[in-house]
Amino acid sequence: MSFQNCKIVGVGVNSEKYHTQTAARGTPEFFISPSSLKTFAECPARWKAGYAPPESDAKDWGSLLDCALLTPNDMGKRFACKPKTYPADGKKGEPPTEKPFNANSTWCKEWMAKQGDLQIVSHSELDAVENAVKRLLADETIATYHAASEKQVHVAGEWLDKNTGLIIPVQCLIDFVPRKDSEFQKSLGDLKSTRNAGQHAFGRWCYTAGYHIQAAFDLALFTAATGEDRTDWIFIVQENYAPFETGRRLLSQDFLDIGRQTFQHALGRYARCLKTGDWVGYDPAEEFSLVAPEPWMEFTALSDALEHEQESLLQTDDVPMP
Fold first, then answer.
1. How far apart are CA 285 and CA 303, in angstroms?
2. Which end of the chain is more exposed for a tag (fewer CB within 10 A), N or C?
3. pLDDT tens track for 17-44
4. Radius of gyration over alpha carbons of the chain, in Å?
């Protein structure tokens, strides 16, 4: 099982266009990306039915930051800044006045409708993302990595699944591809916005969010497309609130190995679903899944019981003899 017929589709690609597909989920023509693969692996039936992770302020901020840092020329194509005020009719006999923007007013509703698919942002959000970008580029190492890299590189190809014989279209969008003459030539990189950029906190979240799966997938697809010797994965990390503290992370080879095994297994499972048409849910057909304690739960219960027993013995020792 491997990637084949891979190529660089474009550089500086608009992420909204990258995510737009004409093929429906569950059809052989649908392009599988790391994000769709991770969501599929959680529950194939839910994914095929159209599930997408809920929108959130953090996700909106991540999209805004990505665009501002990686493809700043696209800001006007993807975002519209909400006016601070709108012209409102004055009282009888008085001239029009400026009032704070209110989405319930007719003028504001019409303005919103004119923006079409653009994401609406406020002046304060634009000020914040400008400060966040400045903070990132104030880090000399991050600024050097940024300057040495092509951004938003779209790679596409195929995955040949030998067990089913199916060929699955695949793609990825890589934030940073350092040029071959730079000191970072062995790496690829990704920008991540997070609540906690600390080393241990981000490491735990990296596993929970499946960032290692994305890293291994993108590395494998890019090297298949270019034949280049890229072995390292860099995360440029930034907290999503002021003062927008930054972090620089190199993903270990052990973490990449786990990601590689996980995405290969998930692609194999996806191929089986395509082949059989059986998009399984959380549970086996006509069965109840057993909910059993995990080891840490049993350990906690045992620890609590021992603590209670010790407290009881101490209380017994304190009771005076008659």
1. 38
2. C
3. 898 899 999 999 999 999 999 999 999 9
4. 26
